[in-house]
Fold this sequence. Notes:
The chain is of the alpha+beta class. Helix content is 27%, strand content 33%.
Amino acid sequence: xxxxxxxxxxxxxxxxxxxxxxxxxxxxxxxxxxxxxxxxxxxxxxxxxxxxxxxxxxxxxxxxxxxxxxxxxxxxxxxxxxxxxxxxxxxxxxxxxxxxxxxxxxxxxxxxxxxxxxxxxxxxxxxxxxxxxxxxxxxxxxxxxxxxxxxxxxxxxxxxxxxxxxxxxxxxxxxxxxxxxxxxxxxxxxxxxxxxxxxxxxxxxxxxxxxxxxxxxxxxxxxxxxxxxxxxxxxxxxxxxxxxxxxxxxxxxxxxxxxxxxxxxxxxxxxxxxxxxxxxxxxxxxxxxxxxxxxxxxxxxxxxxxxxxxxxxxxxxxxxxxxxxxxxxxxxxxxxxxxxxxxxxxxxxxxxxxxxxxxxxxxxxxxxxxxxxxxxxxxxxxxxxxxxxxxxxxxxxxxxx
Length: 401
């Protein structure tokens, strides 16, 4: 049985803010008739945040939603949650649903944490007596019992995230919509939330999960829908779709290697990280990797005033966890531009991994370090059972006898 059915849903917004126009003053159903008669005029200065999306979510399933910023992920969740109505198409939800789309939706900044629990419970149809039985468990899960009677406006973003998520866990829901809220809060509480969501799914709950942390999406969902400018690009098994999505995003940014010319723009727009004390500079990094873990990296650099240096390449997962790396012997640096490369077999399981490249001086100081946004995707092997996958992303080679 499907607990969520979205059929040809479109959500249209007007670009800019100004005086009301004739088409916005027409009552229904005359507006639909005029739209069919003059489609170009009707759609002028508008855009579709969600454009013809059709999805079915069976009971007990987990669905991830991925896409670039502005792809329509949050708008789709808001349509499903009933926060907004579709311009056309239909959305049907057949079970009790909770949505964590914004940390403080349903909360009031002037009320205390405890008072906000009753307020959010009332939004979901729970009376005061029903919430009385739940309050202590909610505060214990959130770990903020001592702040329960403090106004919400004095809470940090992380504390607000704890309170919001903990309240949702106590409301006997059958469907959960989660949009990036796990990005807020400390690592221990994030693990606690992930464990609760896993238990929720094992109890036949349905989960729709939006996150830019692709490793978490891979871990939490069994299928993924990929959105681009409001349209569905693909929908299918998580491992297959995420691999193609990451490769597509690399091509979207550029078909060329990463270069320093784009670094300033990327630092602002995509959150790449680069640091070092100077004296040498990475100019260009070219990565050639196949889906089996074989990887070739070519690095061009300027030595500047560094005469001897060491090159290092390391990898992190999509959550930023450092997984390991390799370094060169001491290299005699050329005068002017230089180039160095390496070939390696990555010991990682199927997943998405991000390289970091660095130049160090022989005293261990980082002269230039570049955390790239160009991912290496290792694909899942068809029909292969990896019984040790739960131990982490690194695959240790061994000879059994």
